[in-house]
Each structure stands twice: as C-alpha cells, then as structure tokens.
Write a structure and sequence with these properties.
Layout: H1 3-24, H2 46-54, H3 56-60, E1 73-76, E2 79-82, H4 99-108, H5 123-126, H6 131-143, H7 166-174, H8 187-199, H9 203-206, E3 229-231, E4 234-236, H10 245-248, H11 251-260, H12 271-279, H13 285-297, H14 312-331, H15 337-344, H16 351-359, H17 361-364, H18 382-385, H19 390-398, E5 400-401, E6 413-414, H20 423-435, H21 446-455
Antiparallel strand pairs: 1-2, 3-4, 5-6
Helix pairs in contact: 2-6, 8-13, 11-13, 16-20, 19-21, 20-21
The chain binds heme C (3 copies).
C-alpha cells in the first residue's frame, strides 16, 4: 500500500470508530448549574407558574386531549414530530424519571435511555433554566399532574432524519453552556433576559436559524438575536432593532399585547395567540414588567416601574367604547394617498382597493388604523408587511380569533374570506394591503394564495 492509500484507510477506520462511539456511547448529561439542598422545596404554586411561562402544556397537550398526555403534531421541515406524554404515568409518561433524568431532557434533550430528542422540544432554550426552576418543575410534574396512561403517537421521520444519533453532532455544534449568566447590574434586566431567553423561549420562534438550523444569536450583542424567524408559512416578527415592536411601541402597549393579545396597534394571531392565551397572560406584574423592560432596554428605550405601567385590568373595560369613538374621529383624517383613493369611491379604482372597501373597511377603516384593542391596525403592521406573506394570506383565508385572558376575556374574531375571494382576488387584496398607507412590501401572487389554500388551516 502506498502512503496515500494508508492514510485513507487510517482515516476510514478512525471515522468508523468515531461513528460507533457517537452511536453507542451514551451522551453525557449536564450537571446542575447550582447545588441546592436535597430537601429544597419551591414555594407553593411556583412549579405550576414556571410550567405556564415555559408553555409546557400547549405543546404537550393534543387538541381536545388530556393535559400533558402529548399527541400534538409539530410540523418541522423534516416531517411531523409528535409531542410526548409527560404526565407521571410510569409506562406512557415520565413517572419513572429521576430529577437528573428530567434535567437531562430539559438541558441536553436526552431521554433516560440516551435517546436524543428532536429540538422541536426547545431544550436549546430550557438549557438556560436555573436549578430552582428545574426542581420546581420536577416537583410539579411528579406531584400535581394527573397521570394519563395513554401512549402518544410515535414520531416517524424519513431517513436520514430518523437517525437520532445525528442530533448528538448537532448538539455539539448548537448548544452553549447551561444556565443563564447575569449580564446586567440590574436585577430587573437580568430577570427579564432570563425569562425571554430561557423560560419563555421567545427565540425558538423569533430568532432566525443559522446554517445548521440552530437559533442564531445568543445575546443582544449579536445582531441576529431575536431578529425575526419563520414558523411554517408564518413570520414571527423581529423583536430587536429599528422598527421592531419593542422599539416602536410604548411600554404599556407592549405589556398589553403580551398579556392580553391586543393593544392600540395590533392583535395576536397565529402561534402567538396560544403563547399569550396559555402562557404569557399568567406572568405576574413584576415578571411582565421585567420582560417589557428588558425588550425595551436592548432597543435603547427605558421603562418606568411596574406602577407606571397602566393597570391592564381596569383599562380593559373602557377600551372598547373609547376606541370606537377614537376610531371614528380618526376616520375623519382623510390625508394620504391610500385614504383618498378609498374615500373617493371612484368606480375605476383598482380591484385590490375595491375589495378592501367591500370586505375590510368596516373594521379596519379607510386609514388602515383599526380601533384600539378591538381591530388591529394594518398600516405598519409587522405581519402585513413581512417578507413572508403567509401569515397575512392565512388570516384573510381563515380569519383569526384573539385569546381569552383574565384581563380581556372577549375573544374578538375576524371572519375568514376564503370562500368569498378567489386566489386572484385575494392576491390583489393582499397586495393592496401590503402596499397601502405607509406600507411598502412586495406583491402577493395568486400562486402564493393557491399554495396556502391547499395547505389548509395551519394552527
Ligand atoms: C414547542 C413545543 C414544546 C414545548 C414548549 C415543550 N416541549 Fe417537551 N417535547 C416536545 C416534543 C416535540 C417532544 C418529543 C421530541 C422527540 O420525540 O424527539 C418533547 C419531549 C419532552 C420530554 C421527553 C419525554 C419523553 O416522553 O421521552 C420531556 C420530559 C419534556 N418534553 C418535558 C417538557 C417540559 C417540562 C416542558 C416545559 C418546561 C416542555 N417539555 C415544553 C415539545 C415541546
Ligand atoms: C410558537 C412561536 C412563538 C413564540 C414561542 C413566541 N412568539 Fe411572539 N409571535 C409569534 C408570531 C407568529 C407572531 C406574529 C403574530 C401576529 O402578527 O399576529 C408573534 C408576534 C409577537 C409580537 C408582535 C410583533 C409585531 O411587530 O407585531 C411580540 C411583541 C412578540 N411576539 C413577543 C414575544 C415574546 C416576548 C415571546 C417570548 C416570551 C414570544 N413572542 C414567543 C410566534 C411566537
Ligand atoms: C368584522 C370585522 C373585521 C373585518 C370585516 C375584517 N377584519 Fe381583519 N381583523 C378583525 C379582528 C377583530 C382582528 C383580530 C383577530 C386576531 O388577531 O386574532 C383582525 C385581524 C386582522 C389581521 C391580523 C393582524 C395581526 O397583527 O395579526 C389582518 C392582517 C387583517 N385582520 C386583515 C383584514 C383584511 C385584509 C380584511 C378584509 C378582507 C379584514 N381584515 C376584515 C376584524 C375584522
């Protein structure tokens, strides 16, 4: 054998050995980030509270299914991944998990037998959790959740994605240190950053993905941190930088959006509806204040104390009446090209504008500003002007419904127009909305609409 052939053979053997190690030697588990006494007990209710903010229930409960029994389908670019049963049932759930097993699922994405979980389980983010919160969660799942002895459907992706050992390589590349460092001299900012990055896992949707499909950007030092992501056909708008909601909205508006799903600009639709309805509405005033303060801080804005943020509960009752009055006075403002075009009622007006007058104007108005807390503004709306038009098309096709929250229980809804508008008409209308008022986004084609119509209701 010549030298070259020897080298190739040696590399081949080495490769096989490494592969065998990856496949057969179990992945190591990350140790706790701090040590707590064995008899540590979280405050009453804290485990359930962390579960809410971490939104475990939304993903681990099927539509109409028993809480935490799994079976919710999560669509990934590689196929459908089913969430698992995480009730304390010993056979079908996690009843046999030790605390270390539980932490390994949250930090390392591994099951007790070493099987790797797909990162559809957001362990990239839960890896930031503090040991106090891991312990509180563990106690909650073991003692307060009712066991359900039903097996969740098995995830069965096509080759090569069914080779879960490959995830180990991905983990090496994608995961940083466990725990969440305090980067600020300010306890409120540190708490806010921890909730956003760790428990609330906002980056799972709101950060772009890098070349290996990991969440890009770790801290506000990185320009792609929370810079906007795409889930399925929906945009999750940027939370960082010029023009992002935390940069342009007041602290009150941001808090109202996150805790009630509506504010004077916008309303939640798509996956964010569930995030507010199942998770963020349960945040304490202090924690909501910390998240808002942090999101504003990284965008160069300051926020007053929690007492300076409007009391959302008392504000809620008056909003609907006030806002209709405010909206009709706003309607009198007839400056601007789009407003004049719509107000002219010119029979020769382009199809998109005419369809807007016929179908949308009654609620979103000629100025595209909607009504505070009732009808979202379409002018300057991140969902409307996103490069990914799928969210806008989906809302027009199927409508949307706000979540019910303690502070704002009304589930105000927008009807779907899929039955009434053809693909061509819907494309003209969506293009009009994307380019009307101050909006300046690309046109939508009938093919874009046809594709989403065929995909059906996405959430
Ligand atoms: C965005 C959706 C999502 C959220 C939120 C989520 N999970 Fe998961 N989780 C999954 C999916 C999907 C799987 C299964 C992944 C797989 O099969 O590889 C999973 C798997 C697990 C497992 C392994 C279970 C088993 O049966 O082997 C545990 C434990 C777990 N999750 C606990 C939690 C806890 C606790 C929370 C909240 C702190 C949580 N999950 C939040 C999607 C989610
Ligand atoms: C499961 C995916 C998902 C998660 C997790 C998520 N979001 Fe969202 N978020 C979305 C989507 C989709 C939208 C767009 C909704 C719309 O426009 O109606 C959105 C919209 C928003 C908006 C409005 C942006 C704008 O410009 O209109 C804010 C603010 C926001 N999210 C904050 C958060 C925060 C803070 C967290 C974490 C605590 C979070 N989101 C977690 C999917 C998600
Ligand atoms: C009957 C009143 C009504 C009509 C008519 C109506 N909408 Fe809406 N629209 C709403 C309400 C209420 C919401 C908030 C629902 C939600 O976000 O869950 C909404 C939400 C939206 C959103 C999502 C905004 C966001 O930030 O998530 C878009 C886009 C939208 N409407 C566009 C349109 C278009 C285009 C038309 C005409 C085809 C239209 N609407 C007709 C009431 C209406």
């Amino acid at each position: 054998m010549n030298k070259f052939a020897k080298l190739v053979a040696a590399l081949l053997v080495l490769g096989i050995v490494v592969l065998a190690l990856i496949i057969f030697v179990p992945a190591s588990r990350t140790a706790p980030v701090s040590s707590l006494p064995a008899n540590f007990k979280a405050a009453e209710g804290h485990g359930e509270y962390v579960m809410r903010l971490a939104d475990c229930k939304a993903c681990h409960t099927a539509e109409g299914g028993k809480p935490f029994a799994g079976g919710r389908a999560i669509e990934s670019p590689f196929g459908t991944i089913w969430s698992t049963n995480i009730t304390p049932d010993p056979k079908n759930g996690i009843g046999g998990y030790s605390l270390d097993d539980f932490r390994a699922a949250l930090y390392d994405g591994i099951e007790p037998d070493g099987t790797h979980l797909y990162p559809a389980m957001p362990y990239e983010n839960y890896r930031n959790l503090k040991e106090e919160d891991v312990r509180a969660l563990y106690d909650y799942f073991m003692n307060e959740v009712a066991p359900v002895s039903e097996a969740a459907p098995e995830t069965d992706l096509a080759f090569p994605f069914n080779q879960r050992w490959g995830i180990r390589l991905w983990n090496w590349l994608a995961l940083g240190d466990a725990g969440h460092p305090d980067l600020y001299d300010d306890a409120v900012l540190n708490r806010g950053a921890y909730l956003i990055d760790g428990v609330g896992h906002c980056a799972a949707c709101h950060s772009p993905r890098n070349t290996i499909f990991a969440q890009a950007g770790e801290t506000a030092e990185d320009s792609d941190y929370l810079a906007g992501g795409v889930i399925g056909n929906w945009p999750a708008p940027s939370l960082y930088g010029k023009g992002s909601a935390p940069e342009k909205w007041s602290a009150n508006d941001l808090a109202a959006y996150l805790s009630t799903g509506r504010n004077s600009h916008s309303a939640v639709a798509g996956e964010m509806t569930q995030v507010v309805g199942e998770s963020l509405q349960y945040a304490s005033d202090e924690d909501m204040h910390a998240m808002v303060t942090y999101l504003r801080h990284i965008n160069g804005k300051t926020t007053g104390g929690p007492d300076q943020m409007t009391n959302l509960a008392t504000d809620a009752g008056n909003d609907a009446d006030n806002s209709i009055a405010a909206a009709s006075s706003k309607r009198a403002d007839l400056s601007g090209e789009t407003v004049q075009l719509l107000a002219s009622a010119d029979p020769a007006m382009p199809l998109g504008a005419r369809l807007y007058l016929d179908n949308c104007n009654a609620c979103h108005f000629v100025n595209g500003k909607g009504a505070h807390g009732v009808f979202p503004a379409l002018d300057g709306n991140a969902l409307v002007v996103s490069d990914t038009a799928g969210g806008l098309i989906d809302v027009i096709l199927h409508g949307a419904r706000m979540p019910s929250t303690d502070k704002r229980p009304e589930r105000l809804a927008m009807p779907g127009f899929g039955d009434r508008l053809s693909d061509e008409e819907l494309a003209e209308l969506a293009t009009f909305v994307r380019q009307g008022w101050s909006n300046d986004a690309s046109a939508v084609t009938a093919d874009d609409v046809a594709e989403l119509r065929a995909a059906g209701f996405a959430h």
